[in-house]
Amino acid sequence: MHRVVVLALEGVYPFELSIPVRIFGTAAGQEGEPLYEVITCSLDGSPVTTSADFAITVAHGSDALRTADTLVIPPFTCGPEEPRDWLPDELAGALALLPADARIVSICTASYVLAAAGLLDGRPATTHWNEAGHFQRAFPQVQVDANVLFIDNGQVLTAAGVAAGVDLCLHLVRRDHGSETANRVARLCVVPPWREGGQAQYIARPVPEATAATTSATRSWAQQQLHRPLTLAELAAHAGMSVRTFCRRFVEEVGMPPGQWLAQRRVEHARLLLETTDLPVDQVAAHAGFGTAASLRQHLAHTIGVSPTAYRQAFRVGRRAE
Fold first, then answer.
1. Whole-prediction pTM value?
2. Which residues on neighbouring strands pair with residue 12, listed in sequence order?
């Protein structure tokens, strides 16, 4: 079974610390069997203070890192400004225990640890938008992108703050076991099942007034209409707004234009159909609203870098159950 080790450092943020066990610990196969084992450790196995007014007790020390298939480092409070202070000798020694093929994931400002260890040199990476400027100055060799939720470099992955950690853990479940499993985890945890890593992590948008019309009902309706073309005029009419007002309100609420959001929903639906049905690719394209197999191939290649056939071979439910 895939083992996820969560490393709790002094001053760890409790919410982010709980994300891996909640997401990976919920993931189960077709027969209800757990797909991951999640354990939490500290550097020496001792209790760890948190950023809140309580401490936590863990059952493992850094030796647990020797058994990690995936290591997740949640953010923690850290005062020093110098890059070398983010990787004290004890932490560097713990990271050296990791198997060579282990995945390493940082959430929020834990990216400083990965950067200080040289794991992000020459790679794109993200961190909390509020720290991105300082992060770039501290680690000029890292290609910092503060405008995304998470970045997947294969073996090394970084997420922006808080909820983006949920997105990245769900992304890994999806990468490991497909959309159906990830969507089931999302439903059980009552979180959005899919937010693209490239979605903007911070958009200054006010909370709508309680009496203001929203696009929520239209979004729900649109997801039931993915099999057919949907125009902006049709979406706006369903919401009872002008096209201009609808587009403005949509971006305020969702953080992206309607067309981009709709394309993401179509890709998500196509992926689910590829995993769970034997429909030919052209029929998957039609059901997902892409019209042609060529259009589906283009969108899937742009989103996840593979063809529909390759995706089906990797994630088809029946194949994984064999």
1. 0.74
2. 50, 76
Helix (H, G, I), strand (E, B) or coil at 110: helix
Q: What is the per-residue DSSP string for 209-242?
A: PTTS--SHHHHHHHTT-TTS---HHHHHHHHTS-
**What's the distance, CA 293 to chain centroid?**
27
Cα(222)–Cα(237) distance, rounded to whole angstroms? Answer: 12
Which residues are paired to 152 by β-bridges? 157
User: 146-193: per-residue pLDDT in tens?
Assistant: 888 899 999 999 999 888 999 999 999 988 998 888 888 988 888 876
Q: Which domains does the chain have, with CATH numbers?
A: 2-189 (3.40.50.880), 212-322 (1.10.10.60)
- Looking at the chain, list the stretches that DSSP marks H as alpha helix, in order from N- to C-terminal side: 14-24, 89-95, 111-116, 132-138, 163-177, 179-189, 216-222, 232-239, 243-254, 258-276, 281-287, 293-304, 308-315, 317-321
- DSSP letter, residue 206: P
